[in-house]
Sequence to fold (585 residues):
Amino acid sequence: MGRDDRNSRTKQVASGRFGVTPEYLAFADELQIKMAQGSKPGEGGQLPGHKVTAEIARLRHTQPGVGLISPPPHHDIYSIEDLAQLIFDLKQVNGAEVSVKLVAIDGVGTIAAGVAKALADTVHISGANGGTGASPLSSIKHAGMPWELGLAEAQQALMANGLRHRVRICVDGGLLTGRHVAIAAALGADNFAFGTAAMIAEGCIMLRACHRDTCKPGIATQRPNLRANFAGTPEGVAAYFMFVAHEVRGLLADLGLHSMDELVGRTDLLTQRTTGDARVDSTDLSAVLAVAGPPDTARSFTGRTALQDPRSSLGDTIAAEAFRPVWDGDHIEVHHRITTADRAVGAALGGAIALEFGTAPPPGTATVHLTGSAGQSLGAFITDGIELRLVGEANDYVGKGMGGGRIVITPPSDDVSIGADGLTDRPAVLAGNTCLYGATGGQLWVAGAVGERFAVRNSGALAVVEAAGDHCCEYMTAGTVVVLGPVGHNRGAGMTGGQAFVFDPRIDRLAARVNRDLVEVRRPHTDTLNEIRWMVEMHHDLTASTRAMHLLTAWDSLATHVWEIVPRGTAERVAATSLRRVGAA
Fold:
C-alpha cells in the first residue's frame, strides 16, 4: 500500500476525531491539531445530519442521517500539557511534523509560545474570515479577529521567548492577493493557507448555502445531482496561484528583496497608511508593527531541533521486537516493566502496521505483557494484531484513537479493593480520564474503574469496565460500552449512536445521572441480554474479574438491574432524513 496523488499530505486531527484512524494518521507528512478556527473560535463544529450520507457515515464511523457533533477541544486538551501529550502521541504513530491551528484572538501569543514549548513544528493562526461547509453565515462573518492581529501577536511572543527560530508560522483567514501574502510575511508568516480564493478558482460562486447541502456548483454538497455540476480543474487553481506568485515577485522587487525569506518578520517595511478619514486614521497600529526582541533574535524559521522528535523508548523497543514477526505471520509474546515515564506505548507499532496493512488484519499477532504503572496514552492508535495486557494501572487516554487490537488491564494479585460480594464496593481505579477518546475499533477490558469522560466520541470500540466517572459516552456515535457498576453524572450527553449498558441496582440513581437530551434509559431485550452476558463472560475470562464472577453466578436475578442507554429517536431521524434526500433528488 503506497502513497499516491489521491493521498492528502496534511491530515487534520480535530476535536471530533471523526475518521481519525491509525491508517489515516500513518499516511501523512504533516498532522494538524485543530484547536480552533476562524468561524467557530474555541468551539467544536457540527456536520448537519442531512449532509451525512452513507459514504460520509462510513468514513466517519457513524450512521447516515445522524448529525456529527464535535466536542469542544477541552475534552482531551485542558492545558498546554495535554496538548503536548497529543503532539507526543501523534509523533509516535507517525514521525510526521505536527501543526497546531489556533484562532486569531487576544492573547494568542501566549498560547503560541506554549504550543512551541509543547514541541509543535508549526503554529497556524486562523483569522476571522474562515468557514467550513457546515458553518452558518453568522459564524463565518462575525467570529474571531483579523489574521493580522493574531499573526503579529504570535510573532512577537515567539521572538520574546526565544522560540521563533524552531517553529514555522502559517496564517489563513481570507488571503486573496499577493499583497496579502507580502503583508503576512512582513508580519512574520513563513507559510500561507488559502481557502475561499482557491474554492472560487475551482468554481465556487459564494452562494452562502454550504450548510444546507444545496451548493449549485457542486462543491459543498453530497447530492449526486448537484455534484455533477462541478466544473473545476487543477489548471484553474494553479493559474490563480501563479498570478498570486507573480504579484508577490513584483512587490519583492519593489522592496529590493531577493526572496520571501528576506521579507519574513520585516515589520520595518510596513507603515500605517493615511486615509484622510479622521476616525480611521485614529486607529493605532503601533502594537501590530512593533519589533519584538533584540536585533539578533531570529525573526523566521531557521531549522528544527532534535528536541522536536521525542520518542517513547519502550514503545520503540516493542515495535522493533514485534513488527517483523507480525509481518512474517508469526505470533510473538514480549514482557516488559512499564513506568509512568513510558507514554504512548503501542502507538509506534500500531502506526507501522497501519502503514503496511491499512485496516486489514496483519498476518501475525503480537501480545505485549506489561507490569507496573503505565504513563499516558497506553495503546493509543493501536491496530488489529496487537494485544496489550497490563497488570497494574494506567494513566489518562488509554486506547485513544485505537482502531483495532485489544487492551486488557487487571489489578495486581494482592489488590484488596473488591468487597466480599464483589458488587457493593467501588472497584479500584485502574485507568484515568478520557480513555477510548475517538476510538474507531478494538476492545478494552478493565477489571476496575475508569475516570471521567470515558469513551467520548467512541465510534466503534467494544469496552467493558466496572465503574466510570462523569460524562461517560459523551458524543458517542458507534461501538458498545458496558459498565458493570455505577457511573457518574451527565451520562450519554450528545450520544447519537452505539450501544451503552449499565449495571445498577438503583434505577433512580442511574436515571438522575443520564443526560436525557438525546438518550433514554430502557430495559434491554432478551437477545440483547444474552449478548451482554457473553461480554461479561469474556470479561471474566480475560481479566479474572471478581465482579464479573459474582454477576454470572447470580445472573438470573441480577440481570434485572442491567439497563440500556440508547439515542432518543435515532431510527426516526434517519428515516426522515432519507425521505428528505429522496424528495430533493
User: Anything to note?
Assistant: The chain has a mean pLDDT of 89.
